[in-house]
Structures are given as structure tokens and as C-alpha cells.
Amino acid sequence: MKFKPLGARALVQMIEREQTTASGIVLPDTAKEKPQTAKVVAVGNGKTDKDGNTVAVEVSEGDVIVFARYSGTEIKLEGEDYMILDADDILGVVED
Amino acid sequence: MKFKPLGARALVQMIEREQTTASGIVLPDTAKEKPQTAKVVAVGNGKTDKDGNTVAVEVSEGDVIVFARYSGTEIKLEGEDYMILDADDILGVVED
Amino acid sequence: MKFKPLGARALVQMIEREQTTASGIVLPDTAKEKPQTAKVVAVGNGKTDKDGNTVAVEVSEGDVIVFARYSGTEIKLEGEDYMILDADDILGVVED
Amino acid sequence: MKFKPLGARALVQMIEREQTTASGIVLPDTAKEKPQTAKVVAVGNGKTDKDGNTVAVEVSEGDVIVFARYSGTEIKLEGEDYMILDADDILGVVED
Amino acid sequence: MKFKPLGARALVQMIEREQTTASGIVLPDTAKEKPQTAKVVAVGNGKTDKDGNTVAVEVSEGDVIVFARYSGTEIKLEGEDYMILDADDILGVVED
Amino acid sequence: MKFKPLGARALVQMIEREQTTASGIVLPDTAKEKPQTAKVVAVGNGKTDKDGNTVAVEVSEGDVIVFARYSGTEIKLEGEDYMILDADDILGVVED
Amino acid sequence: MKFKPLGARALVQMIEREQTTASGIVLPDTAKEKPQTAKVVAVGNGKTDKDGNTVAVEVSEGDVIVFARYSGTEIKLEGEDYMILDADDILGVVED
């Protein structure tokens, strides 16, 4: 099964990372802040501007992105958790 | 009887699926989350942009779509439950 | 007496239908949901777009339409109840 | 004294009508719904669109109109009550 | 000292009028409604539209105007009370 | 140190004036209304309109202006209090 | 690791400065106001206007900026605290 986001949206999958405090202690799940980093899985065609041209989404499949808190819609596809984000809620791309 | 959505709207029918937990237990109806997946039954002509051109809705009859929580208007046609969605509330299409 | 809606509006008259439950019981008035189906009685000239062209309302006199909950203004004309709807609140047309 | 509404506005005067119930009883003032019907007394020049053209108000002096509930500003001119309405809050014209 | 309003704004001075009830009784200050009539003292240059043209304010110095309730900013200039109004909150002009 | 406001903004410094009541009594600080008069210290380049042209801010360094209540952001630069105002919140200019 | 802000956004790092009161007392952390001054670390490509042209962000890497209270999203990159700001929330640039 595949999922194709519509318009200026992206399907992303959360990146769970071990969180270590400044003093080196690994935090249990309940003490973690909700992660805001995710990997892009699929991207919509972008939005159509008023002249009929399509403005592409700025991220691509595989990009690691940071997104705005309280944004996105969680969905479950074949038992895995994903999030559908509006392109405007993607704040930036983490480059290695 | 047929129903023709106006403008950038779609008439959809909810897809009820048996929900099974990670541990394999089938959930009764009351424990289910409200499904957000639906099949497109009819599509409006789209919206007219400021130059008088019509921007078609991105989904077609038969598409299985995921829609935003708390969106849409429920209606009953000939005893069956449907939902009328704004095209902007359709987040993406599930492709097999 | 006639009533001419202004702009992108329609005058409609509610359609009261006998409501029968799945098990065949006719519901009394107090148990009914407020109907959302109405017949179009008169239509405004539509709205003027930014180039001065008029965009007509998509429905015509006699159409049976479904409208959004909590929309419209109720008025009484010669003792009968009508509703004035914004064209944007008309969700679709029921075709026989 | 005369009053000239500015822009897309109209000065109207409420039409008080004797209200009779279905069973023929004339209602006292306190039992009446606030009337929503008014006669147009003066009309502004309309609004200027983005190309500098003026879009006239759709009603004229003498028209009997129905307006949206909770709209308008009440003013008193030479001891009489009037209302200033935005053209957008005028729902339609009653034609005899 | 002079005051020049910026953009689509006007500086006005409230007109306090003796208020007499229908039965001829002059009301003391505390029983009066706040007046909504004012005299225009100075007018801004208007707003610049998207083509760079200036759209003038529709009122001129000396006009007696009626303004929307709860609009405007009160200021004191050389001990006298004035109000700065957005042009959109000026409902109309009283002509003698 | 200098501060350059960005876009359609101005850096202003409040003008504290001795406030004297109608009866000639000089008010202590706590009885004063917060002043709404300020002197312009620096001005941004203005905002870019949709055709790429820059629309300059209407005030200049040294102007004494009146601004809308509850607008602006207070900042401290080298121990002195300033306020950064959006150009839209500057109501007018006091001319001597 | 590098972070590339998308669109009209900037990645900034807060500037913590010793705060000294007027009377020369250095304030402990808890008595400090949250600083609103930051150094720009990375800048997005700007926003695309309706003609498809890109409008660059007005600040550059290394600029010391003042930003609006309650704006921005805090993120942690490699153990250090940063903030992602919308370009519209950057009020001005501090020049030495």
C-alpha cells in the first residue's frame, strides 16, 4: 500500500531518538519531549498558484525535517504511525 | 437518486474496517477510533479561479482517501450514511 | 409578493419529509433531526468578481439541495417559512 | 437634514407591521420578534474595486429589503430611528 | 499645534448636543448615550492601493459625520479631546 | 550602537510630559495615563508590494507621532527604553 | 550537522548577556527578562511571491537581531538551543 499526499502536503514518519541529558543520563520515554523531527516518506504535487502554475513542495523523499509543534494529522498505515504535514508547517531540513 | 456535490467538494462513504490491536485482539465498535478513511462516490466541478478557469478536484470516483479530523458534513441519502467533504480537507489518496 | 435574493444567495423552502427509522417506525416531530434538504425558490444574480464579471449561482429554481448545518437566515414571507442561504453553504444537488 | 451613507452602505428605516399569529391573534409589542424588514432611505456610492471602478450598491431608495440579524448600526436622526446597513448584510428585496 | 492623521484616517471632534427626550425633558449627562456624531478636523492622505495609486478618504474637514460604535482612538491635544477614526468606521455624512 | 528596524516598522522613544489637570494641578506619575506620543528615532525600509516596489514608511526620523494603544514592542537599548512600532499603528504626526 | 530553514525563516541562537540594573547590581538568572536578542545562524531562501519571484529574507548570517516576544519555535540541535523565527517576527538589526 502506498499513500499519495494531496497538494502542498508531505507524509512523514517520526524519528525516535534516544534522548540523553546534559549530564549523560538517558531519559525514559515518559520524560521525553515529543520529537519534532521526522523523515519525509512521500510528497504531494504542491499547490497551484493563481496563474495555474504548480509550486512544488520544498522537501523531498528521504529528507529529515523539523516541523512546528501542534501541526499535522496522525494516521496509521499498515500498522505504522505516520503524520501528514502541511508544507507550511515544515520549518527546515537537517543536513548531515 | 443521485447527489451532485457543488464546487470543490466530494461525496464520500466511510470505510468501516475491522480494527485489530497490535496484540491481535479485534476491537468492539465502542473502542474504535472514528475512521478517517473513505471512498469517493461523487465529485463536484471544482472551484472557479479568479480568471474564470475551473480548478478540478484532485480525487476521482472510487478513490480511497484520508481526510482531516473534524471536517465534513454527514448526510443520509436513501438510508445510507455519507459525508460531504471540502476538497481542502482531503489529505491524500491510498494507492494499492 | 415575490422575494429577490441579492448577490450569491438563494431563497429556499425546507422539505419536511416523514422520517421512518430503520425498523419502520415513523418518528414524531420532536424526535426528528432538523432537515437539511430544501427546494430552491429564487436565486440571486451571483457575485461580481474582481474583473467585473458576474459569477452565477450554481443552483436554479426548483433544485432540491442539501445545505450546511447552522447556515442561512430564516424569514417568514406571507405566513410561510423560508431560508436565505449563501451559495457557499449549498453543499450539493439531489438528482432524481 | 439629510444623511449620506459612505461607501457600500444604506440608510434604512424599520417597517413595523402588525403581527398576527396563525390563529389570528394580534401580538403585543413585547411578544414580537424584532422585524428584519426595512425601507431604503439613502444609499452610498458603493465600494471602489482594485481597478478604481465603483461597484454600486444593489438596492435603491424606496426598496423594501430584508437584512441579516444582528447587523447594522442604529442611529437617531431628527428624533426618528434609522439603521445604517452594510450592503453585504442586505439579503434580498421584497417585490410586490 | 497641528495633527496630521496618517493613511486612511481622520481626526474628529465629538459634537455634544443637548439631548431632549420625546416628552421634552432635557437629559443630564449621565443619562445620555455616548454621541456618535463628530466634526472632521483633519484628514489623512488616504490609502495606497496595489497599483501605487492613492485612494482618498471620502470626508473633508468640516464634515459632520456619524461613526461606528466602539471605533476610534481618543487622544488629547492641547487640552481638548479628539478622536482618530479609521475611514472605514465613518458610516456617513450629515448634510444640512 | 545603532538599531535598524526591518520592513514597515519604526523605532520610537516615548515622550514623557508633565501632565497638568484642567485646574492646574501637576499629576504624580501613578495618576498619569500612559503616554501615546513618541519621537521617531529610526525607520525601516518599508514593505515590498506585490510588484516588487518598496512602499516607504510615512514618518521620518525626528517626527513626533501618536500611536495606537496596546501596540508596539518595548525594547531596551544601552539602558534606554524604546518601542518598535508597526507603521500601521502610527495614527498621525504632531506638527508644531 | 547543519540546519537549513525553509522559506522566509531564520535559525537564530539566543544571546545571553549579563544584566545590570540602573543601580549597578548584576541580576541573577531568575530575575532576568527573557532575552529577545539573538544571532542569525542560517537563513531560508525567502518566500516566493505570486509572480514566482523569490523575496529574500532581510537578515544575513551573523546579524544580531531583536525579535517579537512569544514568536519562534525552540529546537535543540546537537545539544545546543536554537530558535526558528519567521522573518516577519524579526523586528530589527542591531548595528555596532
TrEMBL record, chains A, B, C, D, E, F, G:
Q: Which organism is it from?
A: Rubrobacter marinus
Question: Family, per the entry?
Answer: Belongs to the GroES chaperonin family.
Assembly notes: Heptamer of 7 subunits arranged in a ring. Interacts with the chaperonin GroEL.
Superkingdom, taxonomy of origin: Bacteria
The places in or outside the cell where this protein is found are:
Cytoplasm
Pfam family of this protein, just one? Cpn10
* Keyword Aminoacyl-tRNA synthetase among UniProt keywords: no
Q: Which keywords appear in this protein's UniProt record, sorted alphabetically?
A: Chaperone, Cytoplasm
CDD domains to which the protein is assigned, alphabetical: cpn10 (cd00320)
The UniProt function text for this chain reads:
Together with the chaperonin GroEL, plays an essential role in assisting protein folding. The GroEL-GroES system forms a nano-cage that allows encapsulation of the non-native substrate proteins and provides a physical environment optimized to promote and accelerate protein folding. GroES binds to the apical surface of the GroEL ring, thereby capping the opening of the GroEL channel.
Q: Which residues form a coiled coil?
A: none
A Gene Ontology cellular-component term: cytoplasm
For this UniProt entry, the molecular function terms from Gene Ontology, in alphabetical order, are: ATP binding; metal ion binding; protein folding chaperone; protein-folding chaperone binding; unfolded protein binding
Q: What is this protein called?
A: Co-chaperonin GroES
Gene that this sequence comes from: groES
Chief site of localization: cytoplasm
